[in-house]
Amino acid sequence: MKHPYSSLSDQELIIKCRKDDVKAQEMLYKRFYAYAMGISLRYCINRDDALETVNDAFMKLFKTIKTFENERLIKPWFRQIVVNSAIDSRRKNLKHSTVLDIEYAEEKPANNQIISKINAQDILKLLDELPEIHRLIFNLYEIDGYSHEEIADILDIPSSSSRVYLSRAKDKLRKLVNNHFYLNYERAI
């Protein structure tokens, strides 16, 4: 059975959500769940943490929806809520985690033919292998477009640290690409 509000626009749903309409909230949740989960999975360690982050983000959305400005688009606003929720949940662990710098044996330089065969899904899997702070800063800077100064404010670290962590993340990603894909490439040719 089709949801009675499924034909409503985002703006119409927002207006109804402002009036605490539960059916409108349910429809907004269904409409943006996959979007929120996609963002959350990049920041969280596992699917359970991501789901918790998504649910927290929706709670914040519904709590603050009355302050949402009508002329704004909801997706960028909600994306910000999801990212902030994920960071809030991870921030506790970042303070207690130790960052290990794993050094690899002599590496062969990345081959452009190898890189051209890697898809986005492969990169996301490699991101999971980075230390948590590196993955978090890589996501914020490279994927979500935050500046180092904004990252510094969000994570309460110096902007220079953000730059260093991003540089280390990129170095480790290069090494991971070589380690994961170079051998397979060598066998294929």
From TrEMBL:
Residues 121-173 form the RNA polymerase sigma factor 70 region 4 type domain. GO terms for biological process: DNA-templated transcription initiation. InterPro entries: RNA_pol_sigma-70-like (IPR039425), RNA_pol_sigma-70_dom (IPR014284), RNA_pol_sigma70_r2 (IPR007627), RNA_pol_sigma70_r4_t2 (IPR013249), RNA_pol_sigma_r2 (IPR013325), RNA_pol_sigma_r3/r4-like (IPR013324), WH-like_DNA-bd_sf (IPR036388). Residues 28-93 form the RNA polymerase sigma-70 region domain. CDD domains: Sigma70_r4. GO terms for molecular function: DNA binding; sigma factor activity. It holds the Pfam family Sigma70_r2. Keywords: Sigma factor, Transcription, Transcription regulation. It comes from the Bacteria. The keyword Transcription applies. Belongs to the sigma-70 factor family. ECF subfamily. PANTHER family: RNA POLYMERASE ECF-TYPE SIGMA FACTO (PTHR43133), RNA POLYMERASE SIGMA-70 FACTOR ECF SUBFAMILY (PTHR43133:SF46). This is RNA polymerase sigma factor. The lineage of its organism: Bacteria, Pseudomonadati, Bacteroidota, Sphingobacteriia, Sphingobacteriales.
